[in-house]
Structures are given as C-alpha cells and as structure tokens.
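Write out the bound-state structure for FE2/S2 (inorganic) cluster.
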Amino acid sequence: MSCETRKQSPDGVCGLAAPQMAGGPYFPETPAKFRKREVNMSTPFDYGVVDEVITEWGAHPGAIIPILQGVQERYNYLPKAIFPYIAEKLKVSEARIYGVATFYENFSLEPKGKFIIKVCDGTACHVRKSIPNLEQFYKDLGLSEKKVTTDDLGFTVQTVACLGACSLAPALMVSTSGAQDKVYANVSPTQVSHIISELRTQQ
Ligand code: FES
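---
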C-alpha cells in the first residue's frame, strides 16, 4: 500500500493512523531498564534522563519516535522543554520533533496521571451501560470531560472506542508505567469505586 492511500507522518513515515499503529513496528518495545518509573511528574526536569534515552537509541533522526517514547515512559508525558534539546542532539529542527509528537495519539504533551483509566465506550460497552461507569469515575475523582486528570496526578480518565474485549462489556483498562495493562470486565458503578480504592493503595 502506498502513502497515497495511507496516512503519512511528519517524520516521513508512511503508515496507518496512530491508534492502529500502537505497538506496531514504529513503536518498538521500550527496553526494560526504561520501563521503570524512576522519575515522576513532581520530579524537576532532568536532561540526564533524556540523554540516557538518546544514548540507548542513538542520536539520529530515525530514532525520534523511540526517543520520545522513552522519555514519555519516564514522565508519562512529553515535557515541552525536551523539544529544543532533542532537536539539537539529533541535529533536526524542533518543528520536526514537535510534529512527530503531536501526530501520534500515543504521545501526550499534557501531564497524565500515574494510573490511566480507559473506559471503553464502543458500541458493545455503550449499550451495556459504560457511561454510568464513566460518570462514577468523574464523581469519585472530581473529574469531568474537560478535566481528565486529578490535581495530584494520580489518575487520568479517558474514553476509548473499543478495547477489543467486547465480550467483557462494559470493560475498562487501567495502565500504569512499569506494569502490565489490566482489563476489568462487566464493570458496574459500584465496582468503579472499588477499583479507585484498590488503585489508591498502590499510589
Ligand atoms: S466495545 Fe468495549 S471492548 Fe469493544
């Protein structure tokens, strides 16, 4: 398939749109040593972290995506300060780095919570009442459609189109750095409160 029929990233990658690419060849597995959560959002920004990631992947333009991915693994988002720094190290324009970061939905320029809760609102989950679950998360965490991350950066609540687990509807998934994603099946609003309590013990 050519780039005429597929989406082309600002980095010149001819491929599928971002959500379908997650976990694909352009998002290589992050090395285990980078999966550890050694820094967090309250840690002052440390260029040494970026240097470590650049050293791992090499300071060349072809490594933009894994480098951004490595930094995001550490901070849970991409601090704006990294763009000029990585651009200089890789000898590419800052606009190119920024273009890649904003092209893929996998990357976030806004801080996210330690726990990212993805409430599925695909057709199967929606008809089995996913919205009351979403509203329970909003209520318990003081969030809304416009404010999706708690002030203490503990939780981010998002909706997704389908988790690929429709037989478990209504389903949701909890992701946190350094751990495997966990899928919850047949969730009810009561269970939502239990899930939050369970996650709070891990904060
Ligand atoms: S619609 Fe929710 S998992 Fe598919």
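---
The radius of gyration is 18 Å.
The CA atoms of residues 112 and 156 lie 6 Å apart.
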